[in-house]
């Protein structure tokens, strides 16, 4: 290793060390950073100057008296410059979120569309159009998008960015990274895993939970001590294909009686007497480019539930029961601290949460003194694109040097 | 920290470092140890002398020419002195294994007995009698038992050593550590978890697997990169209570249609027309103190299977199917690299392995390119007491200082 290479490696490590502390502490003075990291004050000042110049850190304007020496101005992670994009292809919508480095959600765009009716190429072209126009809007408000992650409802080869199986889309071995041409590095990951990470980084602050992502498909992500559990091949968390009833209706996955056939969005709407193919609203929207009116699917179900429609109530009862059965198996196998219901189960929580808890308690209460609590996600269907953008933010905080040298 | 305390801490760390390398490498010279650890040769020689004196290490008699300097004699972990005891209370047997520090199984004793018919106090007294007589035998062959772990088929509070729930024994909040008076430190752990660790340390050498422990109850232990996954409260791996059919027969656990009701030993024997209460043979036996003849339960089932008895074959078919359903849910949730069938499923493997694999492939093959392989454990019902003794061995290797100072 030459001296220059060694110096670069040490600078990269120190940049990560300092930015990590700034991110973890919210706001902090240079003097405090020197004490925390053990680096010399002049070194910290130089690193902070570089991070400010690269737009990763800003001064807060708040001056703190130092424990020793002169008062100093606090710095914090900047929300003014660098940003990440989270994209989602789901069965019945496309979504794009832009999150700045301080983890504030800056732009959210969604497009209700039935992606089962289009070829993968068309879906990718639509997504690219939506993403690029959102990136343009980001530029208009002073943000520089430096990377993105795409969430898809299927098993994903993380190395190549290929969707292996997405039964609800009817996709098999669809490469996404090369066709999706974006002006920054992209990765692809499973929607339910990203939703769990979204809940970890943008949700209620829990560090041990099973996050259930209710969509047309049903997925889950297990977070253990703040880390995602992916399984040996990366395909853990397929809650939607846990067997609720072994002789039940056939599933797109090749199985029978899977949870999705009882509690997935199509099954739920169908049981409530609502045409299941109607695109739902997807994640929250605030742009004129997307229709402001809620889709006819889940929104219609919510209207009927509020009017105490018998079929709608019975459909939720049945879905909640099936979810309770699948989660009974999940709790027996993986023993999570708590269960967070997200996706469509977030707005439906008042009608399904009780049945889920009741089913779990009836089946688990004898064996376990504490049955995991069942909670509602604050993020609903936004969790996956937030987790996607959040992954990029995590990566920048962990290794900011690349953005400074660029 | 005084200088003496600091010296003791450093010596303890270096003893662990050196013994860890000896254990990992099988046999190695002092000179090689000095190179590997970076410690001075004289320090290594002193540490090895202490480990030899404490009976943890022996010279192999093999002299290797050093890369530099004089030839040296190799040392290895000693199987001649220090040993650990693994105990098991299961529903229909008690078992005791003694394993020496080199991980050789030295003594195995088992006692078929229906523990459902006795009070916890009587069960503990029986176990203590069996354990102490085995420890006496160990002394006779020159072994010194320094610690033990007790495996029980239920949820365990690891801190207090209390069995929380053992539905198949009908136990609830039964303290085991204080009533079980042994002349060395003891801990209590879940049988299925210990069986998985037994498979890890004494089995086929895999590091990522779900080990299924078939007994009267059915449990599982998930090993991820060589580490046991315990879940948030330590109660993960309750495969026996994964729901096979939500309206199925009621289970001791308070649930309904649990795997145990289809594939547990009682259910299996009952379906085959064999009285399920007959004690089975338990782990392998080689002592005159235990009846050499196989118990009438599983041994009778095996006899009938070998004679192609229709009921026996149908019972295995049904149990294998149910196991396949529960494992379909498990693979969807936790995505293990492979599945190892142990306990009673080991001898029954020829009659259930195929059905399990077939069920998994039919239900998972569409979603996954690779369905986890289903393999037979070499250890059968011995896995839990081996894992129990193995935990003590691991602990000694990781921190041998206590045995030297004693």
Q: Can you offer a commentary on this structure?
A:
The structure is a homodimer of 406-residue chains. Chain A is of the alpha/beta class. Chain A folds into three domains: 75 residues, Arc Repressor Mutant, subunit A, CATH 1.10.10; 136 residues, ATPase, nucleotide binding domain (Nucleotidyltransferase, domain 5), CATH 3.30.420.40; 178 residues, ATPase, nucleotide binding domain (Nucleotidyltransferase, domain 5), CATH 3.30.420.40. In chain A, 40% of the residues lie in helices and 23% in strands. In chain A, the strands form four sheets. In chain A, strands 6-5-4-7-11 form a five-stranded mixed β-sheet. Chain A has a five-stranded mixed β-sheet with strand order 14-13-12-15-16. At the A-B interface, strand 13, helix 9 and helix 10 of A face strand 13, helix 9 and helix 10 of B.
How far apart the termini of chain A lie comes to 22 Å
* CATH architecture verdict of the largest domain in chain A: 2-Layer Sandwich
Structural class of chain A: alpha/beta
The stretches of 5 or more residues of chain A where confidence is low (pLDDT under 50) are 280-294
For the record, the CATH class of the largest domain in chain A is Alpha Beta
Strand content of chain A: 15-25%
User: Rg of chain A to the nearest angstrom?
Assistant: 23 Å
- Helical content of chain A stands at 40-55%
The quaternary organization reads as homodimer
User: Which chains have the largest interface?
Assistant: A-B, 51 and 50 residues
Examine the coordinates and then state which fold CATH places here, giving the name of the CATH topology of the largest domain in chain A. Answer: Nucleotidyltransferase, domain 5
What is the N-to-C order of secondary-structure elements of chain A (H for helix, E for strand)?
A: HEHHEEEEEHEEEEEHEEEHHHHEHEHH
What is the CATH superfamily of the largest domain in chain A?
A: ATPase, nucleotide binding domain
Shape of chain A: globular
Protein name (chains A, B): ROK family protein
Family (chains A, B): Belongs to the ROK (NagC/XylR) family.
